[in-house]
Amino acid sequence: MNIDWNATNYTNHFSFVHQFGEDVLKLIDAPAGSRVLDLGCGNGALSKKLQELGFLVRGMDASEEMLAVARQLFPDIRFEKGDATQFTLQPPADVIFSNAVFHWIDAEKQDALAVHIADALKPGGSLVCEFGGKNCAESVHVMLEQCFAERGLHYARFNYFPTIAEYTAVLERNGLRPDYAVLFDRPTPQSPGKTVVDWIDMFVREPFRGMEEKQKAEILQEAESRLRPKLCKDGRWIIDYVRIRVRARKL
Predict the structure, then answer these.
(1) Where does the Methyltransferase domain lie (predicted)?
(2) What is the pLDDT of residue 15?
């Protein structure tokens, strides 16, 4: 994955990620008692929700910091470290669930991700996932591109934000048949008191890597000022999220 997490800050101030993810759970149609892998489980909040629905849950994440939080919060759930593009699973799962993860995996690794998901599912098992879709947070990325360009810098787009056609093609060529797919706008309010600068500092780290702190601060201040009329409503910042939500069956 192309991001390092501040797990404590994420848990305390960006809980909207897993709160919105609870709605994705409704796509799971396996019966209680089914084996479910929460792939990219983060702090384990949705793993716990899956457990409360009666599933036999395992959580997997690449971040040791996130796993430490998950194990502390939910000691009765099994959490393990694993790379979503390389993992294996025994016994195989009835369902692989994932929320707000796949857009952090580089485009050229999406086929490897789909292959390993298919291999880790029972025949007829399902993938249920949601993540960033085409033009997610586009206002923020376009503004940062402009701020970088004005300083002679290149703003590297690093997320995988596909269309439905692009993503379902990945699944289909790797043994997974989509039976539900939707792309939709989901304007996402930030926690009270948090601005677009806090959002960028959490989710847009890679383009700033190696940059002097003074220059970074200037860019962030400028981006916040320019984005305020569009994304700040009545003192609350709302990021222009777009999500793709998919269910697919293993052939």
Answers:
(1) 36-125
(2) 47
Measured on CA atoms in the order 106, 111, 112, 116, is the torsion positive or negative?
A: positive
DSSP state of 191: P
Q: pLDDT digits over 79-105, tens only?
A: 999 999 999 999 999 999 999 999 999
Q: Domain range holding 175?
A: 7-136+159-190+239-250
Determine the straight-line distance between the first and last CA of the chain, rounded to whole angstroms. Answer: 27
Residue 229 forms part of a structural domain: no
Residue 67 lies in a domain: yes
What are the b/e assignments for 181-195, b being 16+ CB within 10 Å? Answer: bebeebebebeeebb
pLDDT tens digit sequence for 29-51: 999 999 999 999 999 999 999 99
Task: For the chain, list the strands marked E by DSSP.
Answer: 35-39, 56-61, 78-81, 93-99, 121-132, 176-189, 232-233, 236-250
CA distance 183 to 164: 7
Domain count, the chain: 1
> What is the distance between the alpha carbons of residues 166 and 172, in angstroms, rounded to a whole number?
10
Q: What is the CATH number of the domain that holds 173?
A: 3.40.50.150
Report yes or no on 44 lying in a domain.
yes
pLDDT in tens, 150-209: 999 999 999 999 999 999 999 999 999 999 999 999 999 999 999 999 999 989 999 999
